[in-house]
Description:
single chain; 424 residues; Deoxyribonuclease I, Chain A; Endo/exonu/phosph_ase_sf
Amino acid sequence: MHPPSRPVASTSTLVLASSALPAVPASAGASPSVPGPPGPHEVRFATFNAALERPERGTLAEELAAPGSEQARNVAEIIQRVRPDVLLVNEFDHDEEGAGPRLFQDNYLSVGHNGAEAVEYPYVYTAPVNTGVASGVDLNGDGEAVTEPGGPAYAEDAFGYGLFPGQYGMVVYSMYPIITGLVRTFRTFRWADMPGALLPTLPGTGEPYYSPEALEVLRLSSKSHWDLPVDTGGGRLVHLLASHPTPPAFDGPERRNVARNHDEIRFWADYVTPGADSYVYDDRGRRGGLPAGVPFVIAGDLNADPDDGDAHPRAVARLLEHPRVNDVRPSSQGGRGAARRQGGANDGHAGDPDLDSADFTDEPGPGNLRVDYVLPSRTLTARSCGVFWPTVDDPLFRLTGDRPFPSSDHRLVWVDVVRPGAGP
């Protein structure tokens, strides 16, 4: 049950709170990792893979029903320290009742931790994802289509890897109204409907990896792609383009996950490119992408580093170099310190460790990578930005730490943008 003051507007879509606490900056002593508040005409967008996925359906909501989860407390405190206005959380198990997002708000975000001020988000959006949803066909090539949840064989034949429907889901918390009537989701868009898709082939023969039956149903998005129009004031909309592409790993020589990761990222590049977006259709059948000049912020754990790791070399570069996208390169000193301290694969990286946002296995690799992004459109003026990755001598290092991580192996990434029409 949840308090009647937070009614669910419609099942699994929008959760509304009755009021919001003022966005008072949290005190963190001498911590240099805590940003000051955004300016009076600025909106802070952020993404955070919070690693709040659990191995069994319903476990996360049960855990969040009480205030005793140390990991959830640490995740909440990080959010309270940075205080995003609009926050995408990846790896937050979806449940049809929307209980998880409500309970995380009530029992964790709404409770101050270690001197940080509580934060209340009036608007929360969540919706179904493809992870753990049975496809009904053989996707992993073992000759069997597993349709009963439970175990890796089922997860590998699901539309997106997941042990149960909703594992590794997404949720958006916002201080500003999300215009639900204009929301577009692309969960059911078929991969084969993307012109020039990098559909995997068998090495040596060049034959399609997926059967015709699989290609008939296989969806592009491993979780979902969301276009959420956010009213930043006076009807001035900024479209949050949220997703969490599959990792480019855990596959065979056909590199099916590398290909899918590339095309999941490419979807947004096409979506914001008039002319390249003509093939796009959403879950309601509406066609086309985002018109020219419309402000947007692309956010999420994209699971692709432009310089290192296993992703396709052009996967995220397509976005970072896009003429409509402004890569402001959020950074931290903590990322550089971690790469130096941990060594291993990090020693051979070509990318700037200041930009890293995830602390992955160093031996044998891939090491720490830049995989989490907040990319505003060039129609928005970007101001401050950063990655919440405290250095070892920072009093808040306890929130991120080293393996085993007290919160997540990813770091919260944030960018402040001037709301449309607010001037320079």
